Protein: Ribosomal RNA small subunit methyltransferase I
Organism: Holzapfeliella saturejae
Amino acid sequence: TGKLYLVPTPIGNLSDITFRAKEILNEVDYIAAEDTRHTGQLLKNLAIKKPMISFHEHNTQEKIPDILSLLESGHTIAQVSDAGTPAISDPGELLAKAAIEQDLTVISIPGPAAFLTALVASGLDVQPFTYIGFLPRKKTQQLEKIEEIKAITHTTIFYEAPHRLKKTLANLAEVLGESRRIVLARELTKIHEQYLRGTIAEISEYYQTNEPRGEYVLLVEGMQEATEETVTPEELINEVNQSVAS
Ligand code: SAM
């Protein structure tokens, strides 16, 4: 049978395509692309000509059987998304799962993913980490999600769109408190690449005078274990008395 390759593409800088990714794109029978125009441009830059299959979040269910039958009849297919690694907050997860369910060969090619690029230069603890992807858009659901990650003691990573960033910062402040440390990694691998590191309060203040622009990865430091404070016997007695009184 055929093979399904998951092929990462650049998240900005066009040089971030691996030799192997290029080889695979050159060898396969078809390329399943999230946006055929976007991928067409990439293929043009790489001087590759290939038939493309349009595969995106709005036609996932109807296209999966077609792609599976091409694989079953021995064809090789590379799946690419608009940017980064397919299946990472991208359509593609379902295709990979469906292919595995049919016992077809799925091969993951390593390459760029925005969250990992951001994590290793964030300055926050790298492992373990939780990758959430995009937060729910509705406020109540977003607050619930943030509530879920509130007590996690390791780094949590989100993707966020620029026009929603300020609201998300406000919601983070509401649930996590203004002093929780976060990192915003913006426009990775591009000309305006930038890391903002600070407390939610500091970063929110920055965005009072600067409009969020470009693509963002948002990283939240884990909840810090309460630091052991030295307590004098008098303070201890005070505390005990208070808790008895209340
Ligand atoms: N599959 C991609 C990956 O491997 O990272 C993610 C696709 S998701 C639809 C797009 C989101 O990824 C953007 O909204 C942004 O949050 C993040 N992203 C993609 N490229 C980025 C970049 N160059 N810098 C910062 N964030 C980026």
User: Anything to note?
Assistant: The radius of gyration is 23 Å. The beta strands are 3-6, 30-33, 52-54, 76-80, 105-108, 129-134, 155-160, 181-186, 194-199, 216-220. The mean pLDDT is 94.
